[in-house]
Write a structure and sequence with these properties.
The protein is mainly α. It has a domain at about 65-210: Tetracycline Repressor, domain 2 (Orthogonal Bundle), CATH 1.10.357.10. About 80% of the residues lie in helices and about 0% in strands. Helix 7 packs across helix 8. The longest helix has about 40 residues, at about 1-40. It is elongated and about 85 Å long.
Length: about 220
Amino acid sequence: MAEKSTGTTGRRTRAKGRESRRRIIDAAAAVAGERGYEGTSIAQVSKESGLPASSIYWHFADKDALLAAVVEESVELWLGQVTRGEGEDLRERVTAFCLGVARTFRDSPDFLRLCLMLALERRPVEPAARGIYLRLRREALDRIAAELCRVRPGLPEGDARVLATYALAGGDGIFLASLTGDADVRELFRLHTEAIVHLVTRAEAEAKAEALAPEPQLEPD
């Protein structure tokens, strides 16, 4: 009976620890989304989460480790949303991408603000959170470019990567526009979808035309 009681207590302790960690990460995302990396402190996260600083330090060594965890967990979710391979043709895939980006606007606005701040901020020692975000963003670009090439095999890899970069950059811009409060996000994403589909189709057509063009004849001496 004692062993069973000890096991139950251990499970409860672990569950409580996971709940506390989740509260800390959510609070850190909210604070950092408003104040940026430099403006975030353990004291502010403690106040936002309702947990003592000692609890935060039990889970994370310092602010850098905490914000790195915020970015790593949130980027993985974001990555899954924006690179989910739904649909078998170009328009379906691009629409799925745009819907995924839009979902992150709704579900993770604090995280998106933090990532944009990290991308823009420069300091002598780069925080771990920024490095994680940039690495996983590059992974997102690779995945999106690969999906474009899969549904449009005639699209050159170089063009696919440029267009993937444009697709993510457009999502960043729409998010910034949404922060002003007067942007029609749905309409902006509709236009973004049309633009991506048009640009991919044009790039593929240009590559095919170039491949079929006769080689220039050399002038006789």
